[in-house]
Every structure is written in structure tokens, then in C-alpha cells.
Amino acid sequence: MKGKRLKIAVISFFLCCLFGCAHKEKTAPSSLPREFSLPPDLVQQVLSLDPDSLSEKEVSEVLSRCPAPRILALDGSIPIVSMESFAKFLIRMGYPEESVRNPATGSYSYSSYRSSKKMAGMIAWYYEKEGMMPMVVGQSQGGMLSIKILHEFAGTFKEEITVWNPYTDQSEDRHAIVDPLTGQERPVVGIKLGYASAIATGKLMRVFLGQWDMLSQLRRIPDSVEEFTGFHIQYDPISGTLFGVGQGDHYAAIGSAAVRNVILPAESRHLSVPLTEDLAKDREAREWIHRYTASSPPPQETKDFYRDKKNILLAADLWYSIRKYWCIELKRWILAKERMDKKL
Predict the structure, then answer these.
(1) Dihedral over Cα of 255, 258, 263, 268: its sign
(2) Taking a C-beta distance cutoff of 8 angstroms, is the pair 233, 264 a contact?
(3) What is the set of domains in the chain, with CATH numbers?
(4) Does residue 132 surpass a pLDDT of 80?
(5) Do residues 206 and 219 touch, judged by C-beta distance below 8 A?
(6) How far apart, in whole angstroms, are the C-alpha atoms of residue 333 and residue 234?
(7) Tally of helices (H runs) and strands (E runs) in the chain
(8) d(C-alpha 185, C-alpha 191), whole Å
(9) End-to-end CA gap in the chain
């Protein structure tokens, strides 16, 4: 473990030297990011979109021409399969690659062994600098980290969270940001994500891994997120649903968060469930995915369909929510820019 930490430290130091980012930024921006600039016709097209019903054409011709919220894809505890395939699925579906890859390392996903407090501080940094609230999607232990990040923002563990610079991998010695949509300073604790998700995350592994602080919190979703989706795999011994998904396995809101529980078909497998990139290359699968909506999904498919189009239900449901909040966050960004322009 010490060798691994030393390796990470050496790589981080090399990147900082290479890109000249070792200096801590202590000056927060006072307005929306300067790179914000969309043609007036594109702005109107975005504002006319319905986030709950976005067609493939609207994604490719409108949203894909715009910036997007950063996606933090969190790996599971077993390094056999990462969330890289899912990240590449998003890119093939039209999500901007620069909003998926880690800008400091170029990787498509993040380790689930990272500190939830630092990850929360990093999300705050991204929000302040990029103007749109990031989304978090985690598989297995990564799902636990996703939920733990929500509890960090809710103040479950600490009253303050330090802003964390993802380029330097260092603290910025401050516990507040300037909200890019209001121009007002606000603490990191209290930030609210638009969307977060956990895939095949079980309580039993929290015991094995000694993550005691999450045993009582794992299924409780705080108000630090607007919408949360918990995905469960039928008869999955790793996530603790060997005998099926019971009521005790379901996620529930502590307060006002909109929480959905989605049970994936038994054809899904714990270690391979993130493997979704090939679905974006399949014309039939893409059409099915774009028809899918959380409120009105396509009719239940046969086992043969789910076996042939492996992990398509997970891919479709996540793509529905991610493109929805891409649209929502983009609209918030545009409207905030308009309000600020009127004040000038």
C-alpha cells in the first residue's frame, strides 16, 4: 500500500511540474467561467428542449454542441473491471469527452478508494470553475463512495469540507466557493448535486472492508442530491442479493430527494455490469436506449434480448438521467448568464 501511495505521489508531482499547476489558487471566480459563449440560436434551441424527453437528434444536433457537467465514474473495489467502458459508452452516445475524462490524468474513471471528503471538495472545485454541477456514478464500492459523497455534502460526518484542486491534488485552504450561478459565496457543505447513482452496492462488503461509518447510511439518501438511482442485480452474492432483491435492499430518501430503485435482470453480472461501450456501437441497441424513459420504459423484453444486449437496461436508464441533467444544468447555466448580463 505504501508503494502504491508513493507511486501516486510521484505521478501527481510529475503532472504538476509538467503542467505548471503546483501553485494553490486562493482566488475564487466572481462570475460564470469566461469560456461561456454559445451562439444565440443555439441558446434558444437549448432553452426549448424538454429534459424528460430528449431525442437522439436533439442530443447530436443541440446538446453535443454545448459544454456538459463533469461526470465522475467511480470504480468498484475489484480492479478487474473499471468504469472505463461506461465512460466510453457516454462519449459514443454524444457526451463531450473532456467532461468525462479526468483532466489531470486523462483516465476515464476514479478509484473508489479515494477519500469521500476530498472527492466532495473536488466536486465543489469543478462546480465553481466550470459552472455546472458534476454528476457521480459508481459501481459496487464506487456506489458506496457516491453515497458517501452525498453524506459529506449533507454534513453527516463533518461541518466543513475543504475545496480540493484536482490538478494539484492539494487543498486550497478554504471551505467555501463562489457559486457560479449566483455570484455569492457559499460553504461546500450544503452543495446539492443534480444526479447521482450507485450500481450493485451491498452492505456485506462494507463489513468485510471495515467501512463501518456507512453501514447505517448506505441506503439513506440525503437532500444533497435532486435525483438518485440505485441499481440492484438479482441473485448477486457480491452485493448481498443472492436470494433476490428485498425491501431492505432499497434506497430511500431521508427528505426530499427523488429516489428510484431499478432491479436489473438476472442476466447482469456484478463484475461485468459496467461493460456498456459496445451498446453504443449497435444501431438497434442505440434506438432502444433512446426510446427508454424512466417514467415510461419500453415493454419488458425477453431474456434472450437482455442476454444479447447485455447491460442495456443499466445503460439506458443511466443515459436517460445523465442526458436529462445535462440539459437541466445547461439551462441553469444559460439562465444564470442572462441574469448576470442584465445586472451589468
Answers:
(1) negative
(2) yes
(3) 40-343 (3.40.50.1820)
(4) yes
(5) no
(6) 39
(7) 10, 11
(8) 12
(9) 53
